[in-house]
Recover the amino acids of this structure.
């Protein structure tokens, strides 16, 4: 098949961008001809992958989003006979198969956009960019707009079927996968130990890792509050915060205000996520909304139990009490602190480690790509 993979940005970073790379590589390795339709790109993941670059004029995020979707529609109208299948991975409405890696826009608005996640409130009116994103989503998820819609969690699939009048069998789930070699417990003895030494973390310290870009959505305020409470009975606990956020200093001040500044390490953005997991004992992510947080599987693959929220689609893979804990939406900070405190116990962590790794091994990125190619093959076989 000649397959068009449509996404505005092709890059090495970002969850959807990594999926785009993996899917293009998997298609090429299976003998297909993948063409990435994008606005910008880096080097191809495979020499057999080609690019089609569209750069419609636009000023501002909202205009750029709409002009891109329109440009894709026009491009495909001109070249429609040139592709056996069109797969959309972003905000477009012209595709045979749509992958909803970012979940449902209106759910994001309700759970995240109207609340920053740091105690402050956004204005109740939606900005132009959000309205444009919803307009594109409405066109992309109307009946007949595509043959198949792929969700990365059952949480998102239920949400899609609740909000849009789509046939149930047209909306399928393919869970995200993880690189089982990059994220592996064996890294604890080298990269993990080196990072612990650099941070002056001793063997007695139980290290809690928070990793994510966008501290508000990912739940760092709740993490700091819960850790401040839980660490009173676990003085050897330490919190390591990794990821980009313009408000880093405000969160550093929050930790100081909670009296735990000396127990917290704010590392900012880093490219060695595997070393950060390897240096840690427990992963915490009380996210407001994540269709499927890849970091959940990365932590599990690294042998870390996970404490996360049920608004993280990846939580549906876990058995609470076995590989970690799952907090309920609306649960207060005190309840989260109690869950965290239970998992600051070294013996509990050690028991959970092999279970965490075993769960991750069921969800490799190879398996995710195999399941995705199967969905694409079935969609291509149906008349359109």
């Amino acid at each position: 098949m000649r397959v068009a993979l449509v996404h505005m940005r092709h890059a090495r970073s970002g969850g959807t961008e990594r999926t785009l790379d993996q899917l293009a590589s998997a298609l090429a390795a299976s003998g297909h001809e993948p063409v990435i339709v994008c606005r910008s790109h880096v080097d191809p993941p495979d020499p057999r992958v080609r690019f089609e670059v569209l750069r419609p004029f636009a000023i501002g995020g909202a205009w750029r989003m709409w002009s891109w979707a329109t440009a894709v529609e026009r491009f495909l109208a001109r070249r429609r006979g040139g592709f056996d299948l069109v797969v959309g991975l972003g905000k477009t409405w012209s595709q045979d198969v749509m992958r909803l890696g970012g979940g449902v826009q209106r759910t994001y608005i309700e759970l995240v956009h109207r609340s920053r996640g740091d105690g402050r409130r956004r204005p109740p009116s939606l900005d132009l960019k959000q309205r444009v994103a919803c307009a594109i989503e409405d066109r992309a998820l109307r009946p007949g707009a595509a043959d198949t819609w792929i969700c990365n969690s059952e949480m998102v699939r239920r949400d899609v079927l609740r909000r849009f009048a789509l046939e149930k069998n047209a909306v399928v789930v393919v869970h995200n996968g993880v690189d089982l070699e990059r994220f592996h417990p064996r890294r604890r003895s080298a990269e993990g130990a080196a990072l612990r030494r650099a941070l002056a973390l001793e063997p007695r310290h139980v290290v809690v890792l928070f990793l994510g870009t966008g501290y508000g959505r990912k739940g760092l305020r709740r993490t700091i509050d819960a850790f401040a409470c839980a660490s009173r009975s676990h003085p050897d606990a330490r919190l390591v915060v990794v990821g980009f956020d313009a408000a880093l200093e405000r969160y550093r001040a929050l930790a100081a205000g909670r009296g735990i500044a000396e127990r917290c390490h704010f590392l900012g953005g880093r490219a060695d996520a595997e070393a950060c997991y390897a240096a840690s004992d427990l992963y915490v992510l009380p996210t407001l909304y994540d269709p499927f947080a890849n970091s959940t599987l990365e932590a599990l693959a690294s042998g870390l139990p996970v404490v996360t929220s049920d608004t993280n689609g990846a939580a549906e893979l876990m058995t609470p009490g076995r590989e970690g804990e799952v907090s309920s939406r609306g649960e207060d900070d005190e309840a989260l602190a109690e869950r965290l405190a239970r998992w600051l116990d070294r013996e509990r962590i050690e028991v959970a480690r092999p279970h965490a790794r075993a769960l991750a091994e069921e969800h490799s990125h190879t398996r995710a790509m195999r399941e995705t190619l199967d969905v694409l093959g079935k969609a291509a076989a149906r008349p359109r």
The two ends are 15 Å apart (CA to CA). The chain has two domains: 2-177+365-381, 185-361. The longest helix spans residues 61-79. Residues 2-177+365-381 form a domain with the Rossmann fold fold (CATH 3.40.50.2000).
